[in-house]
Amino acid sequence: MRIKHQIVVFDAADIDAESAFWAGVLDGTVDAREDWHNVVVDGLPRVAVQHAPNHVPPDWPHGNPQQIHLDLWVEDFGAAHEHVMSLGARLLKEADDRSEPEGFWVYADPAGHPFCLCW
Fold it and tell me: Quick check: is 68 in a domain?
């Protein structure tokens, strides 16, 4: 089986906020259809958002289980942190020691899906 391309699809009650957030994070644009938005980067869909009116956000780490998460390795952690926060991310957990050569902080997107900024 040959897969031509693949994308991650987020469920969200507020499809507009969710797709705008990921377009901002990925420096892309939103190709909006009624119940489905593609976030397009360099002409290709990178992630999508599906309207799910009854979506229950995960409450990581102790509530509703996380359903999926993305790990994003960034060149400038400080700038990436400020950028996602300005787009509406919530910081869920900081690394114990940011001076380590590798690590991550955990955030939630507007629909509550956890994701990590890694260095």
Answer: yes
44-78 residue pLDDT tens: 999 999 999 999 888 888 888 777 788 898 999 99
Contact in structure between 12 and 50 (CB atoms under 8 Å): yes
Domain membership of residue 22 (yes or no) is yes
Strand partners, 17: none
Q: What is the count of structural domains for the chain?
A: 1
User: CB of 47 within 8 A of CB of 36?
Assistant: no
8 Å CB contact between 69 and 109: no
Residue 1 lies in a domain: no
> Which candidate, 63, 72, 53, 40, places its Cα nearest to that of 111?
53
Beta strands in 1-113, from DSSP E residues, in sequence order: 8-12, 29-32, 36-41, 44-51, 70-73, 90-93, 104-108
User: Does pTM top 0.85 for this prediction?
Assistant: no
Check residue 25 and give its pLDDT.
Answer: 96
Could you tell me which residues are beta bridge partners of residue 50? 11, 36
